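Researcher: Structure for this, please.
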Amino acid sequence: MLLPGTENARVCREFLEGLLKRGFKINEGILCVVDGSKGLIKGIKKAFGKKQLKKRRHWHKRENVVSYLPKEKQDIFRKKLNEVFNKPSYEEARAVIQVVREKLKVINERTVRSLDERIEKILTLHRLGVFENWRGVLRVQIV
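Model: Predicted structure, token format:
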């Protein structure tokens, strides 16, 4: 049975708060890798507060973005987004995103809005400067 988003948030929050009560430590913060589930994201935010930093998976974002494109353009932009997400530094990834954004604007403005939505969450490992060290562990490299 699927629960409504708000109920999912409550269940997630209660579960995570239970971990904290049992001794799970987040003194220096916690990186949460999520798939975009609104209930899970809300539960994480409520349970961990400002100690949490969220990271969305590249695959989900890439597929959301290309879903707004005509079929014949989807593979081309999958490759372009893979290039963005596999850049080793935040600055390099942001520079390539700007190029991709300009190309997408010509095709479909909704695609650009999808790309812009939560892009900073996608680039969390890049912003932290740990992408090269963690991408294999978190399986975030896209091929």
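Researcher: Any notable elements?
Model: The beta strands are 30-34, 52-56. DSSP finds nine helices and two strands in the chain.
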